[in-house]
Amino acid sequence: MDILGPLPVTDTGNRYILCVADYFTKWTEAYAIPNQEAVTVARVFVEQFVLRFGVPLQLHTDQGRNFESNLFKELAQLLGIDKTRTTAFHPQSDGMVEVLTEP
């Protein structure tokens, strides 16, 4: 999971894109979001991804503040998700979505 942006603001007020990819099937989803706050990212992840595809066994993100927040850690714990993260300054380990979000 990674976030693309900031982009120009859309008519509906969105400025970022949340990218979520399944490393096994290579299925990728993209969700327009207005900000990259932890509450927004967690809500969209649960409402748009988890409710459609189920709870993933593992979630791999970079070390962005939104993904490392207490809210996101609690969400992962409540859903039983093994939360992993990239090594600092080495986004290559998040390669499948990082390619989508690099300019």
Which features characterize this protein?
3 helices; two-stranded parallel ribbon; 5 strands; single chain; globular; Nucleotidyltransferase, domain 5; alpha+beta; three-stranded antiparallel sheet; 103 residues; 32% helix
Main β-sheet: number of strands, strand sense, barrel status? Answer: 3 strands, antiparallel
How many angstroms does the end-to-end distance come to? 16 Å
What class, by secondary structure content? alpha+beta
**Total domain count:** 1
Tell me the number of helical segments per DSSP (H or I, 4 or more residues long): 3
SSE arrangement, N to C: EEEHEHEH
Determine the CATH topology.
Nucleotidyltransferase, domain 5
CATH arch. level architecture: 2-Layer Sandwich
CATH class: Alpha Beta
CATH superfamily: Ribonuclease H-like superfamily/Ribonuclease H
**CA radius of gyration:** 13 Å
Write down how many β-strands occur, each being a DSSP E stretch of 2 or more residues.
Answer: 5
Strand content: 15-25%
Note down, in words, how this protein is organized.
- One of its GO terms (molecular function) is nucleic acid binding.
- This is Integrase catalytic domain-containing protein.
- Pfam families: rve (PF00665).
- One of its GO terms (biological process) is DNA integration.
- With 103 residues, the chain is α+β, with helices and mostly antiparallel strands.
- The protein has a single domain (2-88), classed as 2-Layer Sandwich (Nucleotidyltransferase, domain 5), CATH 3.30.420.
- 32% of the residues lie in helices and 22% in strands.
- It contains three helices and five strands; from the N terminus they run βββαβαβα.
- It has helices spanning 38-53, 70-79, 95-101, and strands at residues 2-4, 16-21, 28-33, 58-61, 82-85.
- The chain has a three-stranded antiparallel β-sheet, with helices on both faces. It has a two-stranded parallel sheet with strand order 4-5.
- Strand 2 (16-21) and strand 3 form a beta hairpin.
- It is globular.
- The protein starts with a strand and ends with a helix.
